[in-house]
Write a structure and sequence with these properties.
Blueprint lengths: L2 H5 L16 H6 L1 H15 L9 H20 L9 H22 L2 H4 L1 H6 L6 H8 L1 H18 L11 H25 L3 H15 L15 H4 L3 H14 L12
Length: 253
């Protein structure tokens, strides 16, 4: 060992202990790196795509059309007087945020293996930055939702100011699941096959294209609410469509 190497103090990294195993002060110190990672993920998300950011508009609009035709026109699921297009798009906004960022955040640790092995920083920044980059798409979709409300005669009201809170709840749900899967993916590479399966099946057990209180029997409602996105989607619809779509509380009729 050279004299220069001997002069460098050794740094020992130990796991955080206690009930809350997250060092928030350390995360704050690396806030500039976090901002850089978010910006990098935004730039890379649609790099080398022909339509680029237009996919943010095309994907949910096409899904909305399919759900409206299948569930609204053919299956004739009830909408309680609300335009089925707005009803569906209000649920698609948090679902697309979850599904798109979960796929990328679950693979984020493996994709960033080179930088992780070379320099120390809080590893939570990696999945958090990927999920945070989804706010750009969510913001564009939110503007599109407001335009749909105008097009279909749905009035704007004060409850719309609560939409950012439910969007923040979507972030925490996605970040929690994505961080867990990203850690598992480091050791078990089967995770990259499991996550797409979860998002495909999740579309049918999450009330995106229908009002679940009209479909799910009462004895199964509490179990259905184990899915955290159920409450988030209910909250979005309540903010957009009004009191008739108040979120379900366990024990209520």
């Amino acid at each position: 060992m050279s004299a220069e190497d001997a002069a460098v103090p050794e740094r020992v990294i130990r796991p955080q202990r206690g009930f809350i195993a997250i060092n928030f002060a350390e995360l704050w110190r690396y806030r500039e790196l976090f901002g850089f990672l978010v910006w990098r993920d935004i730039l890379l998300r649609y790099k080398q795509t022909y339509l680029g950011v237009a996919w943010v508009v095309i994907q949910p609009l096409l899904t909305m059309v399919v759900f409206t035709v299948l569930f609204g026109r053919f299956a004739k699921f009830p909408s309680h007087g609300a335009p089925y297009e707005v009803l569906t798009f209000a649920a698609l906004l948090p679902w697309q945020f979850f599904a798109n960022t979960l796929a990328e955040s679950s693979n984020s640790m493996v994709a960033s293996a080179r930088i992780i092995s070379r320099v120390y920083f809080p590893r939570l920044l990696i999945p958090a930055s990927v999920v945070s980059s989804g706010f750009v798409e969510a913001g564009i979709s939110l503007v599109l939702l407001l335009l749909l409300m105008l097009a279909y005669g749905v009035a704007w009201h004060a409850r719309l100011l609560l939409l950012p809170l439910f969007l923040l709840a979507t972030f925490f749900v996605t970040f929690g699941v994505g961080a867990w899967f990203s850690a598992l993916n480091v050791k078990y590479r089967d995770v990259r096959y499991i996550v797409p399966f979860i998002t495909r099946v999740g579309m049918y057990v999450t009330p995106v294209g229908f009002l679940w209180l009209d479909v799910v029997p009462e004895r199964w409602r509490l179990l259905f609410c184990v899915n955290p996105l159920v409450a988030v989607i209910d909250g979005f619809r309540w903010c957009v469509l009004g009191p008739k779509f108040e979120p379900y509380w366990p024990g209520s009729p």
